[in-house]
Amino acid sequence: MIPTVFSARRIITMDPSRPEATHVMVSHDGRILAVGGPEDMQDRGELHHDDRFADKVLMPGFVEGHAHMMEGSVWRFTYLGHYDRVAPDGRRWQGITSTNALVQRLRDRAAELGDGPVVGWGFDPLFVPGDRLSRLDLDRVSTTRPVVVLHSNMHLLTANSVALDLAGYDENTDVPGVIHTEDGELHGELHEMGAMFPVMRRVGASFRAMGGDPEAIWNFARSACRAGVTTSTDLLNELAEETLADLFATTAEDGYPLRLVPMLSAMALPPAAVAARAKELRARSTDRVRLGGVKIVTDGSIQGFTAQLLAPGYHRGTDNGIWNIAPEALNAMVDDLNRQGIQMHIHVNGDGASLAAIEALEAALAGHFRPDHRHVLQHCQMADRAQLRRIAALQCCVNLFANHLYYFGDKHYEITIGPERACRMNPCASALEMGIPLAIHSDAPITPLAPLVTAWCAVNRRTDSGRQLGMSERIPLDAALYAITLGAAHTLKLDGELGSVEVGKRADFAVLEDDPHTLGPEHLREVRVWGTVFGGRPVAAGSF
Amino acid sequence: MAAPLPVNLLCGYLGAGKTTLLNRLLDRQGERILVMVNDFGDIAVDAALIAGRSADTIQLSNGCICCSMGGGLFDAFERALSLRDRVDRLVIEASGVAEPQRLAAFALAEPELDCRAVVAVVDPQSLAERLADPRIGRVAESQIRGADAVFLSRADIAGRAALRRAARLVARLNPLASQHLAPDGGFMQALAAPHDGRSLVALAPDRDHGRLFASRIIGISPPPDREGLAAIIARHGRAIHRLKGYVQLPDAESPHLLQLAAGVLALEPAEAPEGMAMNRLVAIAPDAEALARLAADLEGFGISSGTNSLARR
């Protein structure tokens, strides 16, 4: 088999011994054989030269350390979010800025579908001026078919009269979360899962419909390819056998261009069975499905006021903090998994949750220290420097939610946690200063899957309105590029295999039209992505 | 279509005794119970206990009941509904950190489900400590506040003083809830009663909707006789959401349980739970003035009262 040499305008390798190159030689089975200039490709026998990237920039394929397969499935519903967004099929959806625009888009969609329910997702009423979206607005879409709009936080929906009627709701309904207007009519808004359930199950929009079937698995890869991502987590998966069968079969299909790292939900089975299941799964890993990690969810979200906050708590709004696992159960779970050598990814949004996780890890690691355990605190948005010092002492990693700075930064500044804490949240610079291995993430579909945008957020810390959220926690461009490649790979224990362009590693590349260093820190998010090279095979965005 | 599936919800923090109670319920004959188990905490033992039972067991595939990305609960309810024909009742053992309001909302909202009593299981010996815990005090409190019935577990080993203290703590947090020490006839009756969504809403106001409820403890000592009491309450029935308490009527030998719900007054002989104060009524209404008027009318007989808004804690 003849190796292929790709030439590029520039290759940013992330390998300090050879930070830049112009040529990379790739074996037929997708490994890097040589990196350097044209002269380094000599004397290797017969070579196939591929110069299609001669005017492009290559980087190691981006690694998304925290995203969800739902990014691949939620697009079966109609996008109604505030920000422009690109679907897996490449269609660019304009952000919704008015109720009329929303109604028109759903009307168009209703016509396209012909019959049956019309479901939208990603709506955020805070961004739409005028009266809050109601049943009556959605009745303008249809008075004969159910119309349901899921809000971006997935904790609210607005339904039209037909959908409400299907669920048996009327003006006499007295159920928590079913909202009425001042004059007692149904408003159309339903709050929280309980009230949403009867509507969602009757319009085919249950969360099961947003799971990982083969189409979703392919769509996830389509979104990833557009963003230059060649390895992505699916950071919470019950990994039932039927799910696994779909994952193995679909990713093994010819040309599937993504390495998936699904994390087993610790809540999917009895605590005593989690470690054994994780080990069993680890042994079943394939080239494209990497198993063995476990996800533990502690608290909720900051924007939903369900994160666990230490004093002084939320800036404005009611503290509605939740535990998804009891603190004692967390301690026991962390101790057991650590003892059994299972890598943990612990979701902690508020500083109360990160403190609980730190204490659990301290106890576990004091009882059984395991070198290079790489337990990761996921999100970890509000940890202060004192908590970070403890995280550093524990030799844990953090995967910070840099995208929040842009997408939710104004809300955090004005409403949820106030100016001081908003200006130090997602403290990338402090983490690096303390030597904590750092990744940054999108949590797609919560925010768009786009590591270069995520890097831009960490570098600039600018909100949607242009507000600067603290200067001291900004990180340099190169540090951000590291975080979306080797940094994220490190948190997945894949840094020996991918994350940089080095001999022996996987030939997974992000192919860029623009050079991040030429555009510079301010314009990093404008870098255009051509697609990827996956295992040595070029994959143009939109080509599959 | 089959009748809606009756649902009971068992809440309570880790170690409160939920699984023990559940197993005692399953031991009873004659009812086909579908159990929804939420796999948290020491459930490894619990699952083993339940596995051998004749009732079908559904394990929540995702224990994270209030999770922002959770699909597990949806699936679990779907599955429960698909088994409707094979069971008489659904009992959900909630996670130790589940807030009953969030779970009860499913059963209240879904037309194919019939929300019956929400039960908070409480370990009398650790209750005070739980409530004071900065991490879980709030959820422990919400479990009691959201319940129709509170089951004090381990009554046989708890000791009378601990039981009394726990009963008093519970009564202070949720004076409307009945209290039980054993899964006896009275408890089974309480289980079958419909969930009192109104008191639940009152005790945990819908903050997004800005609805305010006020509660007031009205002491009536000595109480008027039966007719006098009924007459006073009848004048205020429309304005008062709920009224409940144990009274020692001058013309009766044993204590009576007084309950006003949906404008209907019930006054039945009943044994007051351990530690429950006599002749103290808790009243809930949308506006505090209605409560003040009721208190004033009862004042000829009453001595103490105090109003507090439940909108913020």
Strands of the largest sheet of chain B, in order across it? 3-2-4-1-5-6-7
Q: Examine the coordinates and then state which fold CATH places here, giving the name of the CATH topology of the largest domain in chain A.
A: TIM Barrel
Task: Based on the coordinates given, report the CATH architecture of the largest domain in chain A.
Answer: Alpha-Beta Barrel
Task: Catalogue the unreliable spans of chain A.
Answer: none
Give a quick account of the main beta sheet of chain A: strands, pairing sense, barrel closure: 8 strands, mixed
Overall mean pLDDT of chain B stands at 76
Rg of chain B, rounded, reads 20 Å
Number of domains of chain A: 2
Query: Mean pLDDT of chain A, nearest integer?
Result: 95
Walk me through the topology.
The complex is a heterodimer of chains A (544) and B (313).
Chain A: E1 4-12, E2 20-26, E3 32-36, E4 48-50, E5 57-60, E6 62-64, H1 70-73, E7 78-79, E8 85-86, E9 92-93, H2 99-113, E10 118-123, H3 135-139, E11 147-151, E12 156-159, H4 161-166, E13 178-180, E14 186-191, H5 192-202, H6 214-226, E15 229-237, H7 241-251, E16 259-265, H8 271-283, E17 294-297, H9 327-339, E18 344-348, H10 351-367, E19 376-379, H11 385-393, E20 397-400, H12 403-407, H13 409-416, H14 418-424, H15 428-433, E21 438-440, H16 451-460, H17 477-491, E22 509-512, H18 516-519, E23 529-534, E24 537-540
Parallel strand pairs in A: 1-4, 1-5, 6-15, 7-10, 10-11, 15-16, 16-17, 17-18, 18-19, 19-20, 20-21
Antiparallel strand pairs in A: 1-2, 2-3, 5-22, 8-9, 11-12, 12-14, 13-14, 22-23, 23-24
Chain B: E1 5-11, H1 18-27, E2 33-37, H2 43-51, E3 57-59, H3 72-82, E4 89-93, H4 100-109, E5 113-122, H5 127-132, H6 137-145, E6 149-152, H7 155-158, H8 160-173, E7 178-180, H9 185-192, H10 197-203, E8 214-220, H11 226-236, E9 242-247, E10 256-261, E11 264-269, E12 280-285, H12 288-298, E13 302-309
Parallel strand pairs in B: 1-4, 1-5, 2-3, 2-4, 5-6, 6-7
Antiparallel strand pairs in B: 8-12, 8-13, 9-10, 9-12, 10-11
Helix pairs in contact in B: 11-12
